[in-house]
Design brief:
alpha+beta; CCR4/nocturin_mRNA_transcr; about 575 residues; hydrolase; metal-binding; 7-stranded mixed beta sheet; transit peptide
């Protein structure tokens, strides 16, 4: 019935019918996909507008000044059609085909509510939503600023059993109002004719994320996505994968862990993940391939492969807060954020100065809202913030140590969150990755002292009712000065870490921790396992006066970790292991 609606009926549906149910919205979207439309993008902060439509199978895309008179824009459309006809005739003549006689120029007019729009009207006023563009015998309903995908991409790596998450950005709409249809390539064979869809594609899903099965191995995938804003929809975007679905690695180190996290937590619980995901900028070096991880098969170090594993691992934890270290800048924007957005997370990123990787913190948007960010580079804060004056004086007394500290781009990412259904509950989430060198214990002690002082300032000055949650790769074992400082509250000048790099950098001092913190996941035997080293380097520190551990998700077994000798491997994407725990309000 909708195919036979008049233009007036279409405008009535478009502008006056309330979309009260999802079913009606789907009907309207299916209806508009069949209509001829002229899409006009016109925003006040730009000087130009664009007019796009399809004529005789050819895409017309015009860029015009918003202040230009309508008549000039319509003349430009008519002239472009004449030029197109001229090129077609020239092509026929060169091919020896007969050409038609000169065709009259197509009449180009714009109407609104059945009335002719004056040609001296400026473009920004003339091209109204619901107007009708006449180009000869063709008619186009004008859609001004309809929902439109500005980015729509599918990942290159497709593994059976692993989520395929498209990268999508929509203008004038919202991803939650978009519609999705997944198709898989139909395989020909005996008895398959009834299952094969149109043009060899079989519909396979209607969610934003699609998980292919072993039956899809060797097949390409196609996604048709329709942008929407809850009331209207834009033009479909069709995406086809460049490659085919490949077999997954089988059992992964995180599969058994997911049995403990298969449900989202309740309102009184916070599931926290801290994970160094191994930056691609480090994984692809010759040192990594030949010295650090020679046991890892080369394809398992490739970014696309590891990202498939990471996205499945993180989505399966159903976390509320995720703190990641060694996040490549492009991985954050092109891979992790599109995937985690589809699973209900918002995220923030802080890159290290003069580096290609940094820190990211994600939080479940249905539970938390981001109040503020207070990110700093630790070496810069040490020299610029007066609260570190005493510490800076001591560091200045040893030029060798100061130089080592100032060379580091180590960053502290600080995000203050509050509960959506209880705004009195606030969490200051800190995320960091301290200096890595085995003999850099003294540098890490200075870095941690700066971080703790900085966090104290944020909380006491701005959020005195917030509880601290401090996550990261601290590159410090339980016997280290950093761990003792955080967990015991004070570190004396006699601790051996002050002389960790020899007498030239010796700068003993007593430092203290203004917070009461404990390790939510205890002291595992290791959170980092490579060929030449294994040990506990990662922690989730919390305030036991405010939160208590409801559940610590068991780490993979030693057998799982060493099946391929060490990490990373075909079944584990990083050289670190994610820490996961459920914290409950006291």
């Amino acid at each position: 019935m909708l195919n036979y609606l008049t233009t007036a009926s279409r405008l009535f549906l478009r502008n006056t019918v309330p979309i009260s149910t999802r079913g009606n919205y789907n009907i309207i979207c299916r209806f508009y996909r069949r209509m001829d439309r002229a899409v006009v993008r016109c925003v006040p902060w730009e000087s130009k507008l664009t007019i796009s439509f399809v004529l005789d199978g050819s895409n017309k895309h015009m860029l015009r000044d918003q202040t230009e008179e309508l008549g000039k824009a319509l003349s430009r459309i008519a002239n472009s059609i004449i030029k197109g006809q001229g090129k077609a005739k020239k092509y026929k003549k060169n091919k020896g085909a007969p050409t038609d006689a000169q065709e009259p120029a197509a009449a180009v007019r714009l109407y609104y509510n059945g009335d002719f729009v004056a040609e001296d009207a400026i473009n920004s006023d003339a091209w109204q939503d619901g107007a009708v563009l006449h180009v000869g015998d063709s008619k186009y309903t004008v859609e001004r600023n309809p929902p439109t995908f500005t980015t729509a991409e599918l990942p290159a790596s497709l593994l059976a059993g692993f989520p395929v998450c498209p990268k999508l950005k929509v203008e004038f709409g919202d991803l939650k109002d978009c519609r999705f249809k997944w198709f898989k390539e139909s395989k020909s064979g005996a008895g398959d004719e009834e299952r094969r869809g149109e043009n060899g594609w079989t519909e396979a899903g209607s969610e934003r994320v699609f998980i292919p099965t072993n039956m899809d191995i060797g097949s390409k995938l196609k996604l048709t996505c329709t942008p929407g804003d809850g009331k209207r929809c834009g033009m479909d975007k069709e995406l086809v994968t460049t490659g085919t679905v490949e077999a997954g690695p089988g059992s992964c180190t995180f599969d058994n862990r997911h049995m403990y996290t298969n449900k989202v937590t309740d309102d009184m619980t916070i599931r926290v993940v801290s994970y160094n995901i191994l930056a691609d900028v480090y994984a692809q070096t010759d040192l990594s391939k030949t010295v650090l991880y020679p046991y890892c098969t080369p394809y398992a170090l490739e970014l696309d492969y590891r990202q498939s594993l990471i996205k499945k691992e993180l989505s399966g934890y159903n976390a509320d807060v995720i703190c990641l270290q060694e996040v490549d800048k492009n991985v954050f924007s092109d891979s992790l954020s599109p995937a985690l957005d589809a699973f209900g997370f918002d995220g923030v990123f802080r890159i290290k100065e003069k580096q290609h990787e940094g820190l990211s913190t994600y939080y479940r948007r249905s539970k938390f809202k981001l109040l503020s960010q207070h990110d700093i580079m630790l070496s810069e804060a040490l020299t610029s913030d007066p609260i570190h004056e005493e510490l800076l004086d001591r560091v200045n007394s040893n030029p060798a140590l100061k130089e080592k500290v100032m060379q580091r781009s180590t960053t502290l990412q600080v995000s203050v969150l509050h509960y959506l259904n209880d705004t009195s509950k606030k969490i200051c989430v800190a995320n960091t990755h301290l200096y890595w060198h085995p003999k850099g214990g003294n540098v890490r002690l200075v870095q941690m002292s700066v971080a703790l002082k900085q966090l104290q300032q944020v909380i006491t000055q701005s959020y005195p009712d917030a509880s601290l949650l401090f996550c990261g790769d601290f590159n410090s074992t339980p016997s280290s000065g950093v761990f003792q400082l955080v967990s015991q509250g004070v570190l004396h000048s006699t601790h051996p870490d002050w002389s960790s790099n020899g007498p030239d950098e010796l700068c003993p001092m007593e430092v203290s921790n203004p917070f009461q913190l404990s390790s939510a996941c205890g002291e595992p035997a290791y959170t980092n396992y490579v060929g030449g080293f294994h040990g506990c380097l990662d922690y989730i520190f919390m305030d036991p006066r405010v939160l208590h551990v409801d559940q610590m998700i068991p780490l993979p077994s030693h057998q799982e970790i060493t099946t391929c000798q060490a990490l990373p491997s075909v079944s584990h994407p990083s050289d670190h292991i994610a820490l996961v725990c459920d914290l409950r309000w006291n």
